[in-house]
C-alpha cells in the first residue's frame, strides 16, 4: 500500500450534521455528531459542515469538543450567514460565534437572487454585496478558509444573471476560497445546472466552484453530477440525502457516481467499500428508517428477482448490474419467488445436495412447489429460512425433530394479568411423550411458550432463540373473517437472524407454521455448524 496521502480531485463536502439536521424528525445529540464525524473522516470525506455555532448551545458545545478528535482526512466547517444588514462585522453575534467555533474553515451563505435581497433581507442590492464582501474579508482576516454558499444561485441567475455573478464576484474579490452554487429550492433542471455552472467556471477559472443541490424535484443527485461535468470540483450533500423538505443531494450516490463513473477520486479508493456500512451507521444514529431501495447502498440495489435476470447474472453479473456491488461494500441478493426460474434455486439447493443441476428433476419439483405455494399466499423472498426447510423436505433430506400429537388453545375473558390465553400441547421426540401447558398474552404468545417448554427438555439450544418480530398480513380481505393471513416471524440467536413464514385461513395455524419453521431452522443450523467444526 502506498504511504503517500490521498489527494482528491473532487472535494466531497458533507452537510449531514448541518443541512441534514434541518430535516423533519432529525435531531443529533453532541455525542451523535462526534460519532458521525469520526465515521465520515474514516470514509475520507474532505469537508464536514458540522453545524451552526450561532444557532444553539448544542452546536456550540459540539465545536468546543470537536478539537478532541484527531481527524485524518476531514476539515471541520462551521456554518453561518453573512453579517446583518447595516451592521458591523466586528459586533455581529453570528460571526463572533463562527470565530468562537475555532474551526480551520467556515461556510457563509449569502443572497445571490435580487428578489431575495429586496423582499427577504429587505435591503438594497449594494448593501447585500457589501455584506458578502465585509463578512468574507473579516473571516479571511482571521485566517479562515472560507466557502461562500451562494443561496438560490440558479434561480437568481435565471432572474438576473448579472447580479448573481456580482454576488460571486464580491465573494471572490474578498478572498473566498470556494464559491458554492446552491439550488436552494431544488427546482432547477440538470441542463440549466450544467449551463450555468459552466458559465461560472469560465468566469472564475482560478476559484474552486462547488455545487449544493436540494431534492425537491427528485433531481439533486443528477444535478450535482451535471455540475461536476460542467467543472464544479466541490460537491456538497448529505449521507442518505437527509435534509430539509425533500432532502439534499445524496452523497452515497454522488460519491460512487463521480469516482467510479466519472473517474474523479473524492475518497480514498480503499474507503469506497465502507460506503454501505457508513450509510447504515448514519441512518441508525439518526434513528431514521433506512431506504432499502437506495442506489448503491440499499439492500435492494443489487437484489435480483426476475428468473431471467437471475439466470443472466449467474452467467455474468454485468448483465444486470451497473457495478460490482462489493466496490461499495454491498452484496448481490438472489430472491426466490413466483417469478424465479431454476437458476434462482440452485445455490439454495446446493446447500442440501451439491450434485443437483439446473435440469435435475428435483430442481423442477422445487420450482413447481415454490410457485404453487406463492399462489397460495406464501412469499419466500422475505422468508428464506422457510424456503430452505422446504427444499430439505422436498429433497427428502429433512428429519423432523418432533411429532405433534395435538395442541389446544383457550381464550380467557376477562384476562388475568394480561394473560388471556392458555395452550396445552402434546408432542413426542423419539417415542418420548411430553405434555406441557403455558399461559400467554394472546394465543400466539401462549403457543410459543408452550412449544418451547415442551421441546427444551430435548433440545436445550431452543432457549437461545429470540423472536424479534412478528408480522401479520391479511391476504384476501374481501373474505372478511375467512380471509387468509400470512405470518412472518423474525428470530435471532447468538449467531444470526432468520425469517420464517406461515399461511393459513386461521391466524393461530399460520403462526404455528412460522413458529415451528423458526425452531426447526435453528436446530438445522446448529447441526450444520456442528458438522463444520467436527
Ligand atoms: C438555505 C439554508 O439552509 S440557509 C441556513 C438555514 N438554517 C437555519 O436557519 C438554521 C439556523 N438558524 C437559526 O438558529 C436562527 O434562524 C438564527 C439564530 C440564525 C437567527 O435567529 P433570529 O435572529 O431569531 O432570526 P430569524 O431566524 O427569525 O430570521 C432570520 C434573519 O436572518 C436574516 N437573514 C437571512 N439570510 C441572511 C443572510 N444571508 N445574511 C444575513 N442575514 C440573513 C433574515 O432577513 C432575518 O433577519 P431579520 O430578523 O432582520 O428579519
Ligand atoms: C446554503 C444552503 O443550504 C442552500 O442554499 O440550500
- Shape, per Cα inertia axes: elongated
Rg value = 30 Å
Q: Give unreliable regions as ranges.
A: none
The count of helical stretches stands at 17
CATH class of the largest domain: Alpha Beta
The CATH superfamily of the largest domain is Aldolase class I
The biggest sheet amounts to: 8 strands, parallel, barrel
Percentage of helical residues?
25-40%
Q: What is the typical, i.e. mean, pLDDT? A: 95
Structural class: alpha/beta
Q: How many domains comprise the coordinates?
A: 3
Question: Order of strands across the widest beta sheet?
Answer: 1-2-3-4-5-6-7-8
Associated small molecules = acetyl coenzyme *A, pyruvic acid
Strand content: 15-25%
Enzyme class: transferase
Pfam families: HCS_D2, HMGL-like, LeuA_dimer
InterPro entries: 2-isopropylmalate_synth_dimer, AIPM/Hcit_synth_CS, Aldolase_TIM, Citramal_synthase, LeuA/HCS_post-cat, LeuA_allosteric_dom_sf, PYR_CT
Pathway: Amino-acid biosynthesis; L-isoleucine biosynthesis; 2-oxobutanoate from pyruvate: step 1/3
Amino acid at each position: 500500500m502506498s504511504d503517500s496521502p490521498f489527494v482528491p480531485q473532487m472535494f466531497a463536502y458533507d452537510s449531514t450534521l448541518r443541512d441534514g439536521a434541518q430535516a423533519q424528525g432529525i435531531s443529533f445529540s453532541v455525542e451523535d455528531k462526534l460519532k458521525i464525524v469520526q465515521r465520515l473522516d474514516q470514509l475520507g470525506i474532505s469537508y464536514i459542515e458540522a453545524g451552526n455555532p450561532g444557532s444553539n448551545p448544542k452546536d456550540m458545545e459540539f465545536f468546543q469538543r470537536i478539537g478532541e478528535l484527531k481527524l485524518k482526512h476531514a476539515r471541520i466547517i462551521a456554518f453561518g450567514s453573512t453579517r446583518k444588514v447595516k451592521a458591523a462585522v466586528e459586533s455581529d453575534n453570528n460571526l463572533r460565534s463562527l470565530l468562537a467555533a475555532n474551526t480551520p474553515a467556515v461556510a457563509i451563505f449569502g443572497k445571490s437572487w435580487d428578489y431575495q435581497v429586496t423582499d427577504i433581507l429587505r435591503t438594497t442590492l449594494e448593501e447585500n454585496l457589501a455584506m458578502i464582501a465585509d463578512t468574507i474579508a473579516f473571516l479571511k482576516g482571521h485566517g479562515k478558509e472560507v466557502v461562500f454558499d451562494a443561496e438560490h444561485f440558479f434561480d437568481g441567475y435565471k432572474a438576473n444573471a448579472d447580479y448573481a455573478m456580482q454576488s460571486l464576484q464580491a465573494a471572490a474579490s474578498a478572498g473566498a476560497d470556494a464559491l458554492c452554487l446552491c439550488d436552494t429550492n431544488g427546482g432547477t433542471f440538470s441542463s440549466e445546472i450544467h449551463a450555468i455552472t459552466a458559465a461560472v467556471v469560465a468566469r472564475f477559472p482560478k476559484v474552486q466552484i462547488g455545487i449544493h443541490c436540494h431534492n425537491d424535484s427528485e433531481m439533486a443527485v443528477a444535478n450535482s453530477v451535471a455540475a461536476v461535468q460542467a467543472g464544479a470540483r466541490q460537491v456538497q450533500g448529505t449521507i442518505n440525502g437527509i435534509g430539509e423538505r425533500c432532502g439534499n443531494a445524496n452523497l452515497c450516490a454522488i460519491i460512487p457516481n463521480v469516482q467510479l463513473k466519472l473517474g474523479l477520486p473524492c475518497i480514498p479508493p480503499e474507503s469506497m467499500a465502507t460506503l454501505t456500512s457508513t450509510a447504515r451507521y448514519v441512518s441508525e444514529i439518526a434513528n431514521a428508517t433506512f431506504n432499502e431501495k437506495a442506489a448503491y447502498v440499499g439492500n435492494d440495489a443489487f437484489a435480483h428477482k426476475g428468473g431471467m435476470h437471475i439466470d443472466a447474472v449467474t452467467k455474468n453479473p454485468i448483465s444486470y448490474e451497473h457495478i460490482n456491488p462489493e466496490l461499495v461494500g454491498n452484496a448481490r441478493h438472489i430472491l426466490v419467488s413466483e417469478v424465479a426460474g431454476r437458476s434462482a434455486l440452485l445455490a439454495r439447493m446446493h446447500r442440501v445436495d451439491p450434485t443437483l443441476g439446473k435440469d435435475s428433476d428435483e430442481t423442477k419439483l422445487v420450482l413447481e412447489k415454490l410457485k404453487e405455494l406463492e399462489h397460495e399466499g406464501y412469499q419466500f423472498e422475505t422468508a428464506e429460512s422457510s424456503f430452505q426447510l422446504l427444499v430439505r423436505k422436498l429433497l427428502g433430506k429433512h428429519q423432523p425433530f418432533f411429532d405433534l400429537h395435538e395442541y389446544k388453545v383457550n381464550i380467557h375473558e376477562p384476562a388475568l394479568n394480561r394473560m388471556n390465553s392458555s395452550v396445552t400441547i402434546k408432542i413426542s421426540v423419539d417415542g418420548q411423550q411430553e405434555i406441557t401447558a403455558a399461559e400467554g398474552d394472546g394465543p400466539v404468545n401462549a403457543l410459543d411458550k408452550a412449544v418451547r417448554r415442551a421441546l427444551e427438555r430435548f433440545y436445550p439450544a431452543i432457549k437461545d432463540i429470540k423472536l424479534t418480530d412478528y408480522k401479520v398480513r391479511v391476504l384476501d380481505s374481501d373474505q372478511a373473517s375467512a380471509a387468509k393471513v400470512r405470518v412472518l416471524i423474525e428470530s435471532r440467536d447468538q449467531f444470526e437472524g432468520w425469517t420464517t413464514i406461515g399461511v393459513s385461513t386461521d391466524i393461530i395455524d399460520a403462526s404455528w407454521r412460522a413458529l415451528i419453521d423458526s425452531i426447526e431452522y435453528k436446530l438445522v443450523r446448529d447441526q450444520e455448524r456442528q458438522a463444520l467444526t467436527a
